Amino acid sequence: MENVLGLVALACGLIVALGAVGASIGIAIMGGKYLESSARQPELMNDLQTKMFILAGLIDAAFLIGVAVALLFAFANPFVIA
Question: Which residue ranges does UniProt annotate as crossing the membrane (predicted)?
Answer without folding.
Answer: 6-31, 52-76
